[in-house]
Write a structure and sequence with these properties.
heterodimer; A: 427 residues; alpha+beta; Butyryl-Coa Dehydrogenase, subunit A, domain 1; Butyryl-CoA Dehydrogenase, subunit A, domain 3; seven-stranded mixed beta sheet; two-stranded antiparallel ribbon; 13 helices; B: 423 residues; Butyryl-CoA Dehydrogenase, subunit A, domain 2; four-stranded mixed beta sheet; four-stranded antiparallel beta sheet
Chain lengths: 427, 423
């Protein structure tokens, strides 16, 4: 008998209620109000879902109207996480970047948010309903407003849970997922896809998984693995004889070597290089969900990066607007010049474009519609425009933007990752 | 959240596509060649559309984007993007039960499809002019009844004033039951073919924008004369007239909106029309860009696989270009749907309407020009329509507010600046 979904939601809220940061952020009252209005709707929906207990994804609602409105629950999440992003993440971001490490205290605060609940299905005690992709994107977007690199690091456990829930067999889900919603910190499983080669194509992996009796032997090299050094397990993408697969590998396994791999950005996520030499992995460690789809796995990852970038690009725009209004040159705020104002307008245009592309792909994904095309185009647009926004944010701050007195140079370095990262995260 | 076209509009979209493919396309080149010749084929089609409009509240056409029944003040632009978005979400949530997909969205979807057929022919459609949209948006009930079947063009631009519509020099002086109009208007779409022209004129040059009013002037009114027809780069099926007014007496009852000069909101009322029509012009851009993309992909189908799988850097330059153009096109499309959706749901959408127009205008121009390049000599030649679409698209980044005007509007709202601060 599974625990009641409403009871679990209450337990999660209770953790939020016990935390002290909502008071510092003056977030408690608004969140309480939202919870009141949101809970009525979402609890009712939860009760209805519990009654149906359908196993297949719901067919797309053909009569659905075009609608950009967030649900009450999504609105509550966004309000809460945007507060967390601005009051907790942003102040920590500079030091985390400099020290290339996640502050330990932040891990506990993030745990209080209970984000991994959104990666574990209701049947196993979590909060993930049939439609979670948009909510996951909103989570990433809201956290990305605080800091891209910290947000990416904090999303690693939720991504692992999403990955196992979506691509694992029922047995694998039952084995791994309950730990993600326990009282202790969620297990740290890092997703390793990228390989150190120019023009890397995640469909053409050099990492091989060779079947030997009851095991696979994994060999290859993975790079830019988020929190790869601290992870207890790695979810490694590799080429097997019967196709591309994902393998859960113990970080301490024989033949697996990890080393720090500092990069241009993403420093708070402590990126790591992982070398595998004939690492022995049991057959059961290959994610074997019925609907396993490597391309879809890549698409869910790409959209996670896009959603983060939407948040960070919004942060950049929000940061440069007051600066350009306050910075005076030739007797007027520089924002009175079209050369400056048009750059800002373009940032706003492309930012909204990025967001809608991501939302559409995610909405199609959770409706059970094909979304490979939409994800591909969203990735393309976001990679291009997010970098543009990142570089223009530095430009608008002038020489000051080039210094670490402002966060723009950090966003610039982090946003460059968007076109490069494959896997790593998962909506 | 759902960003797909709702099922209830699929019939309309299909209908519009049929018109575009089987009615517009076959005569597209004919009227590109025969500039100033009236596309008589449109009369039959217009009658058909009128019938459809009468029969369905969601039918295609200029008037269905009307704001009738909706009344909201344009947003005061002192909030930044994030706050504004949040407050809009809040407002939207309040009426979540009643999220609407109405006239703005359906008109937009229709326009996109029709312009996949031919932008010039759509602009030449009888009774679908911008003047009709203005009448639908701001006319009182008596005027609505009187101008019901009228085909109305819109006359704003003057030889000395383009985007800066506050600098209008055409004057309207009250004389008894009439206003006397004097001035010169240019770039009036269908200015000669339409039954009437909605003319923007100032009651008092000293009072700036607040004194600008619009008047319905019917053809044949003494003192009004068409002085020339432009020869243009594109949209040749649509006539562009210059009209002069010399002591032209117009009944006072033909003034649209309030006759009072209200410094607070006079001009806002006039500008309000744009919040609804800009997404439609953006829709035209999206339609013509789609036409170019579709045809270019057909021509390059052997060279470009387009399976949305291989990294952009690992495909041919031509294929990568097609991907990039499609992404930009899709972005413009979604931004435009958003602006129309906001209008349907009575959310202030000035900024979003300008964002949509800015993005769609420049994307359509880029897409259509690039498609000519991708198709090479085939694309440049007149055997294909690609070169025509590349000429047609340019106007869409100019009329109904140029790219630069849209960016100014967006920037002013982002920065909380007035038009006197950010010029």
């Amino acid at each position: 008998m599974t625990a009641d979904i409403q009871g679990r939601a209450l337990a999660m809220l209770n953790r939020f209620a016990q935390a002290d940061w909502p008071d510092r952020l003056k977030l408690r009252k608004p969140v309480e109000r939202l919870i009141y209005s949101g809970s009525r709707a979402s609890f009712r929906a939860a009760a209805q879902r519990a009654g149906q207990a359908s196993k297949t994804p719901r067919a797309a609602d053909a009569d659905a109207l075009f609608d950009l409105t967030l649900s009450d629950e999504q609105q509550m999440l966004v309000t809460m996480l945007e507060g967390f992003a601005s009051e907790v993440l942003r102040p920590l971001a500079h030091a985390a970047d400099e020290q290339a490490a996640l502050p330990a205290a932040l891990l506990n605060q993030a745990h209080e948010l209970g984000l991994t609940h959104y990666g574990v299905s209701e049947a196993l005690g979590g909060m993930a309903a049939e439609r979670t992709t948009v909510s996951n994107a909103l989570i990433a977007e809201a956290l990305g407003k605080g800091d891209l690199s910290l947000a990416a690091a904090l999303l690693v456990p939720l991504s692992a849970a999403n990955c196992i829930r979506r691509w694992g067999s029922p047995a694998q889900q039952a084995q791994w997922l309950p730990a993600f919603i326990g009282a202790d910190l969620a297990p740290l499983m890092a997703i390793a896809v990228n390989e150190p080669t120019p023009l890397f194509d995640p469909q053409q992996l050099a990492t091989q998984a060779k079947k030997r009796g009851k095991h696979y032997l994994l060999s290859g090299e993975k790079c830019l693995v988020l929190r790869g050094l601290d992870a207890g397990q790695l979810i490694v993408a590799a080429q097997a004889a019967d196709g591309l697969g994902l393998f859960i590998v113990q970080a301490g396994a024989k033949g697996l070597q990890r080393s720090p791999e500092p990069a241009m950005g993403l420093k708070a996520a402590s990126t790591a290089r992982v070398v595998l030499k004939n690492v022995k992995v049991p057959l059961e460690a290959r994610l074997a969900g019925e609907r396993f789809d490597y391309q879809s796995f890549l698409d869910h990852a790409g959209l996670a990066w896009c959603a983060l970038a939407v948040g960070t690009a919004q942060a950049a725009l929000d940061y440069v607007i007051p600066y350009c209004n306050e910075r005076v040159a030739f007797g007027e705020p520089i924002s009175h010049r079209q050369g400056v104002a048009f750059m800002l307008a373009d940032m706003a245009v492309e930012l909204d474009a990025m967001r809608l592309m991501v939302w559409r792909a995610c909405a199609r994904a959770e409706q059970g519609l094909s979304f490979q095309r939409e994800a591909y185009l969203a990735r393309l647009l976001c990679s291009d425009k997010a970098m543009r926004i990142g570089t223009d944010a530095v430009q608008l701050l002038g020489g000051h933007g080039f210094t670490q007195e402002h966060p723009a140079e950090r966003w610039y370095r982090d946003l460059r990752a968007l076109a490069i990262m494959a896997g790593g995260l998962q909506l | 959240m759902n960003l797909e076209t709702p099922k209830k509009f699929r019939g309309l979209v299909n209908q519009a596509h049929q018109v575009a493919e089987h009615y517009f396309r076959p005569i597209s080149r004919k009227y590109d060649k025969a500039e100033h010749a009236y596309p008589k084929e449109l009369d039959l089609l217009a009658a058909l559309l009128d019938g459809m409009n009468a029969g369905s509240p969601d039918a295609i056409g200029a008037t269905s984007a009307s704001k009738r029944g909706a009344s909201f003040e344009p947003a005061q632009g002192n909030t930044n993007g994030g706050n504004l978005a949040a407050s809009k979400r809040g407002a939207a949530r309040e009426q979540q039960e009643g999220v609407k997909n109405g006239g703005n969205l359906s008109a937009l979807l229709g326009v996109m499809e029709l312009c996949w057929g031919d932008v010039g022919l759509l602009l030449a459609m009888p009774r679908q002019g911008l003047g009709n949209a203005a009448i639908a948006a701001v006319a009182n009930d008596e005027q609505l009844g009187r101008f019901g079947g009228t085909w109305a063009a819109m006359a704003i631009t003057e030889p000395g004033c383009g985007s800066d519509s506050a600098a209008i020099r055409t004057t309207a002086v009250k004389d008894g039951d009439h206003y006397v109009l004097n001035g010169e208007k240019i770039f009036v779409t269908s200015g000669q073919r339409a039954d009437a022209v909605v003319v923007w004129a100032t009651l008092d040059k000293g009072l700036g924008r607040a004194a600008i009013k619009s008047f319905v002037v019917e053809h044949g009114t003494p003192g009004m004369s068409v002085t020339r027809l432009e020869k243009k780069l594109g949209i040749k099926a649509s006539d562009t007239a210059s009209i002069s007014f010399s002591d032209c007496r117009v009944p006072a009852a033909n003034l649209l909106g309030s006759p009072e000069i209200d410094a607070q909101k006079g001009f806002a009322g006039v500008m309000e029309t744009f919040d609804n029509t800009r997404p439609l012009v953006a829709g035209m851009a999206i339609g013509v860009a789609k036409a170019s993309l579709d045809r270019t992909r057909e021509l390059l189908h052997k060279q470009c696989k387009l399976d949305y799988r291989k990294p952009l850097l690992s495909v041919s330059h031509a294929e990568a270009t097609l991907y990039r153009l499609e992404a930009e096109w899709e972005a413009a499309r979604l931004l435009t749907l958003k602006a129309a959706w906001m209008a349907d749901n009575r959310l202030p959408n000035s900024k979003e309407a300008s964002i949509a127009k800015a993005k769609a205008g420049r994307v359509a121009n880029e897409v259509t020009l690039k498609c000519v390049e991708l198709a090479g000599a085939l694309g440049y030649g007149e055997d294909e329509l690609l070169e025509k679409w590349a000429r047609d698209s340019k106007i869409l980044d100019i009329f109904e507010g140029t790219q630069q005007i849209q960016l100014l509007i967006v920037a002013r709202r982002l920065l909380g600046k007035s038009s006197s601060e950010l010029k």
